Amino acid sequence: MTQHFSAQRFSVAPMLDWTDRHCRYFHRQLTRNTLLYTEMVTTGAIIHGKGDYLAYSEEEHPVALQLGGSDPAALAQCAKLAEQRGYDEINLNVGCPSDRVQNGRFGACLMGEAALVADCIKAMRDVVSIPVTVKTRIGIDEQDSYEFLCDFISTVAQQGECDTFIIHARKAWLSGLSPKENREIPPLDYARVYQLKRDFPHLTMAINGGVKTLAEAQQHLQHLDGVMMGREAYQNPGILTQVDRQLFGSALPTCDPVSVVRAMYPYIERELSLGTYLGHITRHMLGLFQGIPGARQWRRHLSENAHKPGADVRVVEQALALVADKLPAAVTA
């Protein structure tokens, strides 16, 4: 039923230290159609790192890898590896404003180097058949005119053959603001992104920044091809249970939070047997019952017990018992 929708119609943003593979597996229990993104992974980590930075579970599909880097050859190498591993999309980070990222010459500072971004996208597109997309801002520092944004998009689209852009509707200050402040202080300018889609109607464009409800997402979808939700989807993951029905026209019944928790048990047991700590999984589940009686007890029990030595699925069962008996009326309301 979803084939006529853009893959970008609704997605959960890549968020460093948050959208790891445990988070994505959990989110996939809540929504079948939402496109999920990895945290940003640098080309250096993939090529030279000790761990497996491309690990994910098959159940996570559709899943996109977000890369950080600015060396076309290294990006092409990583894109090829990611396609071999079965990722559904490669995304280049041209939006993150942190100092650490700038020092590596990637993230938002690349907005000032449109030709290099185009080279990076082209190098990846030449070696993979899966989509290669760009996540960017509407400007950086004093380079925040609409003309600057249009020049960037047209250069990357024409020279890089990029046809899909996810645009965070704020500019980024490359110095003077922390990454957190860069998500809050520069004002949102949705109208500018809407205008961009009107001026580049042949490109697929999704919007990111400040989206807190599915009603807001519906509003953006009147103007654009897709919506990316970040913090709200993480802190209040229950919102994802409504996405398939409201945004993708799915006729499947909405899953309830109790069955979602129980659906996590086999995954939790599998991960514990591989040496994963319970808290690394349950930290992503804390907000599931937000707004439902018993939510505080659920959060507290997991927060206080999931990190203890030997903590296993029984900790989650005990936490669920604190909220489940209060649920039927609240869930069906």
TrEMBL record:
UniProt-recorded Gene Ontology molecular function terms: flavin adenine dinucleotide binding; FMN binding; tRNA binding; tRNA-dihydrouridine20 synthase activity
Name of the protein: tRNA-dihydrouridine(20/20a) synthase
Role, per record: Catalyzes the synthesis of 5,6-dihydrouridine (D), a modified base found in the D-loop of most tRNAs, via the reduction of the C5-C6 double bond in target uridines. Specifically modifies U20 and U20a in tRNAs.
HAMAP family for this protein: DusA_subfam
One Pfam family named in its UniProt record: Dus
Family: Belongs to the Dus family. DusA subfamily.
Cofactor(s), by name: FMN
Species of provenance: Paramixta manurensis
Site entry (Interacts with tRNA), positions: N93, K180, R183, R296, R299
